[in-house]
Specification:
Elements lengths: L9 E6 L17 E2 L2 E2 H12 L4 E6 L4 H18 L10 E6 L4 H9 L8 E6 L7 H12 L4 E7 L5 E5 L10 E6 L6 E3 L3 E4 H11 L4 H6 L3 H7 L5 E4 L10 H12 L10
Parallel strand pairs: 1-4, 1-6, 4-5, 7-12
Antiparallel strand pairs: 2-3, 6-11, 7-10, 7-11, 8-9
Helix pairs in contact: 1-2, 1-4, 5-7
This protein binds cytidine-5'-triphosphate (CTP) and magnesium ion.
Length: 269
């Protein structure tokens, strides 16, 4: 457990209110077991290990007792880890809020639950439960250097093409046709935690209130909202270990990382 003092005025929002449809366990994804413990507990331990925050604000599915209990277990674990260690900084405050129908709603709900005086915030997916501490620290480092928005990202390994449905007689050949190919060297796969100056993120979310349904549905991360404000979003190096556990295959990969040759704790930075 990291024992360095948390960065003053920094909070980490952990969004864990999704239903996990694609994982298909029939329970919220954050409660799904990963090597014997919930995805949420792994994610929270990862946040605490980074040692960057004075508050961890977790958005949970409204009324979910199991996930609330997991948060309570985590709080007890934190208390035990810092108890009796002379000179150890107080562990972060862990608070919970009810998430909403969309990820964006859950972030908004958590933003309203931040402690007074919070100036910087990281927004992190519980589903990226294996994110290394080094990624958190790189994001915080960029915020400290003056960035108002920071995302971790990794190069894309696949070639990415734009497609459209095939029309007319060509539809008998294949359902889609290529309309263009992106320049792979310029593409990045974006991860969390994404870091923000709080006032900027609040302003960015406030603009989203007026979006039409189509635009709202196209918003897949918080940084997009800051981009709409015309502000720069800076990019630091992410990690392949920050994979978002989305499908059953991702769960197998994540368990392989935890239990395989990398050992119980991952190492890639
Ligand atoms: N999330 C949330 N509130 C929502 C939807 C998503 O807090 N209403 C969180 C999820 O818990 C997850 C992160 O946002 O940690 C990324 O979402 P995703 O991977 O899509 O998770 P789910 O929405 O749970 O999965 P699915 O889309 O397959 O149902
Ligand atoms: Mg989802």
């Amino acid at each position: 457990m990291n024992t360095q003092p948390p960065t003053p005025s920094l909070a980490v929002i952990v969004v864990a209110a999704g239903s996990g449809q694609r994982l298909g366990f029939g329970i919220p994804k954050a409660a799904v077991p990963l090597s014997g413990e919930s995805i949420l507990l792994h994610a929270l331990r990862g946040v605490a290990a980074a040692g960057v925050a004075r508050q961890i604000c977790v958005a949970l599915p409204a009324g979910d007792r199991q996930l609330a209990d997991i948060c309570a277990t985590f709080v007890a674990e934190l208390a035990r880890s810092s108890a009796g260690v002379r000179g150890t900084a107080a562990h972060p405050a862990v608070t919970t809020v009810d998430g909403g129908a969309t990820r964006q709603d859950s972030v908004q709900s958590a933003l309203a639950g931040l402690l007074e005086g919070t100036e910087k915030v990281l927004v992190h997916d519980a589903a990226r439960a294996l994110t290394p501490a080094s990624v958190f620290r790189r994001v915080v480092g960029a915020l400290k250097a003056g960035a108002v928005a920071v995302i971790p990202a990794i190069p894309v390994v696949d070639t990415i093409k734009m497609v459209a449905p095939t029309e007319g007689s060509a539809a008998t050949m294949a359902p889609e046709v290529v309309t263009g190919t992106a320049v792979r060297g310029q593409l990045r796969a974006v991860q969390t935690p994404q870091g923000f100056d709080v006032d900027t993120l609040l302003r960015a979310h406030a603009t989203a209130v007026d979006f039409d349904v189509e635009t709202a549905a196209s918003i897949t991360d918080d940084a997009m909202l800051v981009e709409f404000l015309g502000l720069p979003v800076h990019v630091v190096v992410g990690s392949t270990q920050s994979l978002k556990i989305t499908t059953p295959l991702d769960l197998v990969i994540a368990e392989g990382l935890l239990e395989g040759p990398l050992g119980a704790r991952w190492s890639e930075g």
